[in-house]
UniProtKB/TrEMBL annotation:
Transmembrane segments: none annotated. Keywords: Coiled coil, Disulfide bond, Glycoprotein, Secreted, Signal. One of its GO terms (biological process) is blood coagulation. It comes from Chrysochloris asiatica (Cape golden mole). The gene is ANGPTL7. It is found in: Secreted. This is Angiopoietin-related protein 7. The keyword Disulfide bond applies.
Amino acid sequence: MLKKALSAVTWLCIFIVAFVSHPVWLQKSPKRKTPGQLKVAACCEEVKGLKAQIANLSNLLSELSQKQEKDWVSVVMQVMELESSSKRLEVRLTEAEGKYSEINNQIDIMQLQAAQTVTHTSADAIYDCSSLHQKNYRISGVYKLPPDDFLGSPELEVFCDMETSGGGWTIIQRRKSGLVSFYQDWKQYTQGFGSIRGDFWLGNEHIHRLSQRPTRLRVEMEDWEGNMRYAEYSHFVLANEMNSYRLFLGNYSGNVGNDALFYHNNTVFSTKDKDNDNCLDKCAELRKGGYWYNCCTDSNLNGVYYRFGEHNKHLDGITWYGWHGSTYSLKRVEMKIRPEDYKH
Ligand SMILES: [Ca+2]
């Protein structure tokens, strides 16, 4: 609008100047100086003055339009800056949201540790994730089980599944990223290894301690097509180290079709440096994991993590023979336990 008005004014000025400075267009060329011509001569100074004013005006106009352009550029710059800072804010908001649940867990843990200092009876004790669930901790994630003199248990970082089938599950094994090697020795399998948020083995000593009450085992599996299956076992027990962490399982239930862990029932644990299996072969070396190897496997949940299709020539992948056979390595596995008498 402003530009339009300015250009209209410019044209009007030019028209006036033209009319005033060249009235001769409307007259015949005079032969002698008339009084009119004298008047025109007298006007010259006035015309000059007007011309100067017009020049000033056009200068002013061009200055104005330059200034306008500068203003426009600075407005555009400001808008762009606002946009980028709003994007930065969005990113920070997402980060903050991500941290929210973790902070929530931290608060839970602090409350828990405060509560733990006044815990003296076994009814109040924190054994595992099911104890936490009973105390209304309902967010799945990492918790620190406090050390307990009464139970004789050390501080232990665990990942609790508070949602699946009523929650209260303490995860003892997870395979999902392939970033952690499970071809570890006896000591590593005893104390545990890996990353609690990623792939890990909780440790035979911890699993043994947690399974001293009647315990239920749940194995969840996912293949590379996104299909999920599970197997549950009642009366899961892991014996102590003197008994080589022997595995005991009760009844199977689930939807994976074929129970591929029962073959490993009543079998002791083997690693690459401790061949306790029931075979002439060294199953832990052949199957590249630590497991309750019989002779050797019907399942190999601690085997090598292979991406889809990489495994078909080997027998050392993460397998469950009763579902996809011996040459299909699964995409994701989680093993989790909770007390048999757990109420939810
Ligand atoms: Ca052997």
